[in-house]
């Protein structure tokens, strides 16, 4: 798919055509009878479009066809490449960073906290992208990313590693979200899945490059992983800078020419009312605080941290679950969870999950992705650590290649999934097929923890997990974005990501609790006569030590039996996601940006249509219409 996609003219910015400009030869998807049913509340179109949405739509007018559009896509591609290179390498470093402090067990806690932070930050980033602009939100994400990596690379304690990972999680989730929003902004539904897949293709190349990087810097040594984090403190900001320059320049030029008035009637009215009293700084702070529902985000974030973190801390805390600190965390978490629900349903002016975006397809997509992440994190939180221990014959490069099977498969098959959507103009049956493949994959995974740990079983299960995951994620994302208007798209995706991250965090908490209890217990059962308590603690605290410890067959048995229940639970839960997949609406994937606004088509406009004088003239006409409306209202 990569070659045909590269030869195509890139999709462009959505532009809302006036009625008199609709071409007679064109038919919308609804006119063709290809949209089965409305999937959003009736008042969705009345929601005022945010400044960020208006700005990204106005870029169409200043870019048009030609080098400017290619420059935009090229800058986004550069962001994709360096970001995936970073994740392909640093993904494997966390286990060794914590093991260097003999605190490998804290991986579960890190996974819980970072998962919650990644989820809670999604609505915040989405609101920033909608209210201010896409490049502003991307700049904010890059700042957190760089700061977090600096903290991890320079850490002197495991607490610093945890703090750095929490901070850079805000950055990584933000970069992923904003680039995904940008792609959705400038592609039609029929091409959305294919472009999402193409956006992830750098993962395939970097999966092979990553092995040489990790081996070259001796990442698996006690301090080699520091170089792995440190190099991206420079590379990522430098490579993302061109896209920020292109986007900020496009917004500046659109504002200068008046293109914002063409993209949104509210901007035209603002131009007419220029000079009237504006909000003060304090009023702006209150406005944005309310718009992003900051209080609600804080409540849900602290609630889930307090409820989920104790499960992973119970084995290291004195007295386990009877520790007063853990009891207090559960109590506070419960109170905060109740307070969050009361706040959202009774007091929030702009709730995190507004009712206008709640439709059947979107709710089913939330259920599918929640369960997908739940089953994934239930097994994957310690999966690579387990494989590293049971396969001592694998080299560092072999281990890195195996670690990247999932990412390579997800990316490659995401492109194939997108192409199938492009030519069938449907997503539902493909989504169901992906969910079925995922069930089969989890069945083979369960076979591995039952004793068949051959290279073939491990690799085949990983490949099938990637195929099912690629199809499921691509279809779910396209369905979510297509079921809501453009003004709500970023928020809908943020809600989807929030729910999926919470699903992953819950699973990580369960996985961490099982790992921290079962592994030490089984190490004592099988190695209690050989190693004392201190020595067993050293084995449990570092996968490097566990891999080299003899008798190795007893080490493998202890770790494998500890994961049995997790893999069985993942297999059962996969069937629930399949049920949700059968309940979505199989709407048509056409030229429109979404199924709610068929008039917002993704079209290429000629150089003459995007000339400065033409844009300025049309902007004056739009502002004149707005002036007459304002005068008529008064």
UniProtKB/TrEMBL annotation:
It comes from the Eukaryota. Keywords: Membrane, Transmembrane, Transmembrane helix. This is MFS general substrate transporter. Pfam families: MFS_1 (PF07690). The keyword Membrane applies. Residues 16-32 have a biased composition (Basic and acidic residues). Residues 1-32 are annotated as: Disordered. Residues 54-589 form the Major facilitator superfamily (MFS) profile domain. It is a multi-pass membrane protein. The chain crosses the membrane at residues 69-86, 106-124, 136-154, 166-184, 196-214, 226-249, 294-313, 325-345, 357-379, 399-420, 456-479, 491-515, 563-589. GO terms for molecular function: transmembrane transporter activity. GO terms for cellular component: plasma membrane. It is found in: Membrane.
């Amino acid at each position: 798919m990569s070659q045909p996609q590269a030869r195509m003219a890139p999709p462009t910015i959505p532009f809302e055509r006036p009625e008199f400009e609709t071409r007679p030869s064109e038919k919308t998807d609804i006119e063709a009878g290809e949209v089965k049913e409305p999937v959003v509340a009736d008042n969705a179109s009345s929601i005022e479009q945010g400044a960020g949405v208006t700005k990204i739509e106005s870029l169409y007018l200043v870019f048009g066809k030609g080098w400017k559009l290619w420059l935009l896509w090229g800058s986004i591609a550069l962001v994709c490449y360096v970001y995936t290179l970073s994740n392909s390498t640093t993904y494997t470093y966390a286990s060794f960073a914590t093991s260097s402090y003999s605190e490998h067990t804290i991986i579960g806690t890190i996974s819980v906290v970072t998962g919650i932070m990644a989820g809670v930050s999604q609505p915040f980033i989405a609101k920033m992208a909608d209210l201010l602009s896409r490049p502003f939100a991307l700049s904010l994400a890059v700042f957190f990313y760089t700061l977090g990596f600096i903290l991890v690379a320079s850490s002197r304690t495991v607490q610093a590693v945890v703090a750095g990972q929490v901070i850079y999680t805000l950055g990584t989730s933000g970069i992923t979200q904003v680039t995904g929003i940008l792609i959705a902004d400038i592609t039609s539904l029929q091409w959305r899945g294919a472009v999402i897949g193409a956006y992830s293709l750098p993962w395939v190349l970097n999966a092979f490059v990553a092995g040489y990087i990790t081996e070259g810097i001796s990442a698996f040594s006690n301090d080699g992983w520091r170089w792995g984090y440190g190099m991206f403190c420079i590379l990522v900001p430098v490579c993302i800078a061109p896209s920020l320059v292109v986007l900020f320049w496009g917004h500046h030029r659109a504002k200068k020419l008046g293109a914002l008035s063409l993209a949104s009637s509210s901007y035209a009215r603002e131009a007419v009312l220029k000079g009237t009293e504006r909000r003060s700084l304090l009023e702006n702070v209150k406005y944005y605080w309310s718009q992003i529902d900051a209080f609600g985000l804080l409540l849900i974030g602290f609630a889930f941290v307090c409820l989920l973190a104790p499960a992973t801390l119970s084995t290291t805390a004195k007295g386990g679950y009877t520790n007063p600190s853990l009891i207090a965390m559960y109590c506070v978490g419960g109170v905060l969870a109740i307070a969050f629900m009361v706040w959202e349903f009774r007091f929030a002016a702009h709730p995190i999950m507004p009712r206008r975006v709640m439709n059947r397809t979107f709710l089913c997509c939330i259920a599918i992705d929640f369960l997908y992440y739940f089953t994934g994190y239930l097994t994957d939180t310690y999966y690579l650590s387990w494989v590293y221990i049971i396969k001592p014959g694998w080299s560092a490069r072999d281990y890195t290649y195996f670690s990247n099977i999932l990412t390579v498969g997800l990316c490659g098959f995401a492109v194939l999934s997108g192409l199938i959507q492009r030519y069938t103009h449907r997503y539902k049956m493909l989504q169901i097929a992906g969910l079925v493949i995922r069930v089969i994959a989890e069945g083979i995974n369960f076979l591995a923890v039952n004793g068949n740990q051959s290279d073939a079983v491990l690799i085949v299960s990983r490949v099938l997990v990637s195929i099912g995951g690629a199809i499921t994620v691509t279809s779910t994302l396209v369905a979510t974005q297509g079921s809501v208007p453009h003004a709500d798209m970023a928020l809908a995706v943020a809600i989807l990501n929030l729910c999926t991250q919470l699903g992953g965090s819950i699973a990580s908490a369960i996985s961490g609790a099982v790992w921290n209890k079962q592994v030490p217990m089984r190490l004592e059962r099988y190695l209690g006569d050989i190693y004392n308590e201190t020595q067993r603690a050293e084995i449990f605290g570092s996968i490097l030590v566990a891999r080299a410890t003899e008798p190795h067959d007893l080490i493998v048995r202890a770790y494998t039996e500890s994961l049995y229940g997790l893999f069985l639970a993942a297999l059962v839960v996969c069937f629930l996601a399949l049920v949700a997949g059968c309940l979505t609406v199989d709407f048509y994937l056409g030229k429109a940006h979404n199924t709610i606004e068929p008039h917002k088509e993704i079209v290429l406009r000629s150089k003459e249509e995007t000339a400065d004088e033409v844009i300025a003239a049309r902007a004056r006409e739009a502002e004149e219409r707005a002036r007459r409306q304002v005068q008529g209202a008064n």
